[in-house]
Every structure is written in structure tokens, then in C-alpha cells.
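Review the following:
>
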Amino acid sequence: MTLYPYSKIKTEKLGLLLFAARATTIIGLLILLFSIGFILLIFFTGGTHSLGDGATISSPRFGIPSILTGVWGFASCIFFLLIGGVAAAVVSLENQFSKYINNKENKSDA
């Protein structure tokens, strides 16, 4: 089992496009993780904290910036995953088409 995306797709001619598809998919997944982290940041920052003896301190919440970062992160994540998926589909179609052409040539030679 391999842990990189599109590990079952093989190609002879479009290796660079397959690498680009894998790279954009990994970038998209990393952006997704960071977006989730920024949205979770809302719940763990800010508020009033007790210092003891009745003293309290307030720290700012990162609500709006975290939400905006999360939304933009999700949008860019979808874009990167879409581009990676389309590139992988092109590589897969090329591989299937090459197999079909090779089989057709072998049958006509025989």
C-alpha cells in the first residue's frame, strides 16, 4: 500500500502530469488541514481567564479572521483537488487509450 495519491495510475508518456496531479492533490489536502485548524482556532482562543485572587485577563478572539481564512482555505482546497483530479483523469485516459491502440496494433499484425 502506498500513501501518495493516485498510486494505481501508471503512465509511460505523461509522468510529469501525473507528478503534478499528485503534488496538487497533496497541496489541496494540506490546505484542508490548515483550514480546519484555523476554524478550530475560534474555539480555543480568546475569552476571560482567571489569574487568581479575583484578577482576570481578557484575550482577543480570532473569530472573523479564522472564519475567513477557513472559508478561503476550503475554496482553494476544492480548486487544488479539482485540478489534481482532472490531471489524473487525463493521465488515466491516456494510459487506457495507449493500451487500446497497442492491443489493436498487435491484433492487426497477427
The helical segments are 15-44, 63-109. The longest strand covers residues 47-52. The longest helix spans residues 63-109. Residues 45 and 61 are 6 Å apart (CA to CA).
